[in-house]
Amino acid sequence: MGQIMSKLSKTDVWRWIIISFVGAYLLIPIFAMLEFSTRGAPGERSAEAWVAIPTFPKLLSSIFSSLQLAVVVIFAVVFILVPTMIWIHLRLPHLRRIMELICLLPLTIPAIVIVVGIAPTYRAIYQIFGSSPLTLSFVYFILVLPYSYRSISASLFSIDTHTLSEASRSLGASTIRMISGIIVPNIKVGIMSGAVISIALVLGEFTISNLLNFETMQVVINLLGKRDAATSVAVSLAALVFAFILLAILPTSNRSRSSKLKSNKKTEVMYK
Amino acid sequence: MQTLQNKSKVISLKKFETNNLFKKIFPYLGVVPFALLAIIFLIWPTLVVVYGSFQNLEGGYGFGSLIEVATNEKYLNGFKVSIQLASYSAIAGSILGGLFSWAIARGNREGYFRRLVLAASGVFAQFGGVMLTFAFLATFGFNGMLTILANSFFGENILTDASWLYSLLGLVVVYTFFQIPLMLIVFLPAIENLKPEWREASESLGGSNINYWFRIGAPILAPSFIGALLLLFANAFSAYATAAALISQGAPIVPLQISFAISGEVSRTNPGISKALAVGMILIIVLVMFGYFKLQSKVSKWVKS
After folding, report:
1. Within an 8 Å CB–CB cutoff, is residue A84 touching chain B?
2. Rounded mean pLDDT, B113-139
3. Which CATH number fits the domain that encloses residue A136?
4. At residue B88, does pLDDT exceed 90?
5. Are residues A90 and A19 in the same domain?
6. Mean pLDDT by 10 residues, chain A (272 residues)
7. pLDDT at A21
8. Residue A79 and residue A142 in one domain
9. B34 and A98 in contact (C-beta within 8 Å)?
10. What integer pLDDT is reported at residue B85 of this predicted model?
11. Co-location of A28 and A75 in the same domain
12. Dist. CA B18–CA A116, nearest whole Å
């Protein structure tokens, strides 16, 4: 008994040594951002850098553009990617592999390479849609594909789509109603976690917007860093915390929610 | 199988051929919006890069740019440093992240701590770039928190000269920050797949803890670990934003050389260079990701059986 106890605590000691070392690696820079952005006169703390955030109109408008972009990209995921994936899953299963290939392709093509190839396309887009940063939603939709695809397809494979679709059709539901009313509620968790990663990615994106000369949040923060380091660090920290809260609140793993998903599925099927 | 059946149907029902053809084409209309987006914003740009790499200075076509990239000392060195940076940060990230995954897997699976760690990993793995650079400048920069702290305790020391942050070592330290959380996301499921029965079996046969890890744990986890290592390599190799925000002079790595080449194109330099560099990057990443997917399918087969 004593031997088992000492063995257990030895594992636990190692566990906490690792957790505190890696934790320090990840958290000290975050804490340093807080410390750096609240420096006042020597030996004093000051909220000056944080208060100064609203005094940069360019910064505010860029934050607004980035949030808008995140919303548009999520709409594109929900109204283009999700229906296409369900449609292929149900009607065109032989296209599944090519769909997977296309969705995972952005993982093998770095953003910097996409910029090189997409610059001529964006010159054409500039002619048609103008210079709004919102035009970045096209290429951001491509960037979030691998992450959204993975979480949505995991959900899609975990439910019995064929039985659900046959049941809804035998009850007289149209295809659109079947997708929006039956399938989508059942893969909600996958869509949500895909959406959350998309938000984090869009808010953090710098490469493409910077090289295509769009003023998104990261581009403006980078410019601001050269003039007012403390404020740009403050904004960065705020954005990090914002994304962290989003990820912590919203369900991100299928496994922990699977029991709930199952009960949802039952009620969903019963009531629709 | 299904298409074969469809084909035979078409042949047997020649009378309704047009009707049938419509029925066959109709389902494909559903994928048109997605296909258009993918073609215009993913497939076409990729083709532009590959095609453009055969462009020469004079506007003609040939292997000039590709040969230039493959022989010029400057670009070769860029690839060398990029590969070094990606390898070192992938090794550091996979070891630290792997140990961290083990430490998290040993804890409560439904607990809040695990959930917090996973949420933070999701953010940290995505938030490379400008913010990460600022975080490290606030820590180890000339006026960084730890630099000042170390100065006040030890006087002049190794941290005082913060220029190390801009060297290869500094880039590795900064990159490892986003590699660790990515490793956790990729590797935690593999480590949680280790069944407690295997450990019990090993213990009941008299195996020690070391025996268990060397003879059971390590061989089972090896494909997942190497796969994750490759993914981390590709991740660091393709990263641009962090280095761009940190390094303001010179272009030691390929992504920075590409961005320099793009801005240089305005002033009439060879337009093929950026594309040739990009093709070089794609080749290396495709090779690495091919290994990753091969290992992935091996892992999933193993888990199923």
Report:
1. yes
2. 85
3. 1.10.3720.10
4. yes
5. no
6. 59 88 92 89 81 86 91 92 89 88 88 90 88 91 90 83 84 83 84 83 90 90 87 89 80 46 42 37
7. 94
8. yes
9. no
10. 94
11. no
12. 44
Structural domain including A18 reads 1-37
Domain match, A132 and A157 both: yes
Question: Taking Cα atoms as reference points, which of A37, A34, A31 lies closest to residue A49?
Answer: A37
How do residues B215-224 score in pLDDT, each as one tens digit? 888 888 888 8
> Would you say residue A43 lies in a domain?
no
- Interface predicted TM-score (ipTM) of this complex, two decimals: 0.80
Residue A64 shares a structural domain with residue A185 = yes
Phi and psi torsions of B169, nearest 5°: -60, -45
- Measure the CA–CA gap between A27 and A101, rounded to whole angstroms: 36
User: Is A109 strand, coil or helix?
Assistant: coil
**Which pLDDT value is given to residue A268?**
40
**Residue B275 class from Cβ within 10 Å (0-12 exposed, 13-18 middle, 19+ buried)?**
buried
The total number of structural domains in chain A stands at 2
Contact call for residues A34 and A237 (beta carbons, < 8 A): yes
Quickly state the pLDDT bin for B4 (edges 50, 70, 90): low
Domains of chain B: 67-304 (1.10.3720.10)
Indicate whether A130 and A252 sit together in one domain. Answer: yes
Which of A35, A94, A233 is opposite residue B2, by nearest beta carbon?
Answer: A94
Q: Which of A11, A26, A138 sits opposite B180 (nearest CB)?
A: A26
Torsion B268-B272-B278-B284 (CA) sign: negative
Interface A-B, measured as beta-carbon pairs within 8 A, has a size of 243
Portion 141-160 of A in contact with B at CB < 8 A: 141-142, 145
At A82, list the tokens. Answer: 């999700």
Write the DSSP symbol of residue B157: -
Q: How many CA atoms lie within 13 A of B230 on its CB side?
A: 21
Please report whether residue A45 resides in a domain.
no
pTM here is 0.83
Which residue in A90, A202, A98 sits closest to A147, CA to CA?
A202
A46 within domain boundaries = no
Give the minimum alpha-carbon distance from B157 to chain A in angstroms, rounded to a whole number. Answer: 19
Model pLDDT for residues B266-277, shown as the tens digit of each residue: 555 667 888 889
Identify the pLDDT of residue A140: 94
Residue A102 sits in the same domain as residue A180: yes
At B8 the three-state DSSP class reads helix
The interface residues of chain A toward chain B in range 1-60, judged by CB-CB distance below 8 A, are: 7, 11, 14-16, 18-19, 21-22, 25-26, 28-33, 35-37
Residues A79 and A102 in one domain: yes
Three-state DSSP at A45 gives strand
